[in-house]
């Protein structure tokens, strides 16, 4: 998976490649779908949600430029696979999911894998997770029309935020924001397709 879908498409961050070689992706899918875990596509995880395609996980993690000192906020825990990739590299990961069953399922697997630097919240990620802010990195793994204001506020100075921006019914553009003071530099990258970020 890593060699053909990720390295050959130009992902070169050694931390990302190492993390994805190490993490058993099949554990994040239900046993019936396990054989699809290393395929080149997203896979359904129930509740109309999906585990992202491996390449998308790699790409997002690379553009986020995550390092060992980063405190990361993730919105959309989903299966917990992206969470594991982040936790493998970063200092800590704060992850928010609105669907209780998905969060509990991800918590179980990530605890069994021995991660002690992941903190879970069940709730609306539109609001971020103010108690632990600011975050040096923020990743949103669901489609939004714009960046929720709370997330901008919770991003540290010189921090980076990555989010799919656009209409969830069609396609989005994976967009990277870099904060300097109160200025946000915006960079559009690849096209992508995510489930909607739901504000409730
Ligand atoms: N990174 C995950 C992606 C899961 S899909 C993975 O690869 O498994 C996106 C997830 O975002 C879904 O689980 C969905 O329930 C969640 N989500 C959508 N809107 C949300 C919100 N406002 N707050 C928190 N989670 C949200």
Structural features, described:
- By secondary structure, this protein is α/β, with parallel strands linked by helices.
- 26% of the residues lie in helices and 30% in strands.
- The protein is built from six helices and nine strands, in the order H-H-E-E-H-E-H-E-H-E-E-H-E-E-E.
- The strands form two sheets. It has a seven-stranded mixed β-sheet.
- Strand 8 and strand 9 (183-192) form a beta hairpin.
- Helix 2 packs across helix 4 (81-89).
- The longest helix is centred in the middle third of the chain and has 13 residues, at 100-112.
- The radius of gyration is 15 Å and the shape is globular.
- The model has no long low-confidence stretch (mean pLDDT 97).
- Residues 49-52, 75-76, 78-79, 81-82, 96-99, 102, 124-126, 141-142, 195, 197-199 line the site of S-adenosyl-L-homocysteine (SAH).
- S-adenosyl-L-homocysteine binds at residues 49-52, 75-76, 78-79, 81-82, 96-99, 102, 124-126, 141-142, 195, 197-199.
Helix fraction by DSSP (H/I, runs of at least 4): 25-40%
Q: Please tell me how large the radius of gyration is.
A: 15 Å
CATH domain class: Alpha Beta
Spans where pLDDT lies below 50 across 5 or more residues: none
> How much strand content do the residues show?
25-35%
Ligands (ions, cofactors included) = S-adenosyl-L-homocysteine
CATH fold assignment: Rossmann fold
Q: In the CATH hierarchy, what is the architecture at level 2?
A: 3-Layer(aba) Sandwich
Order of helices and strands: HHEEHEHEHEEHEEE
Q: Total number of β-strand segments?
A: 9
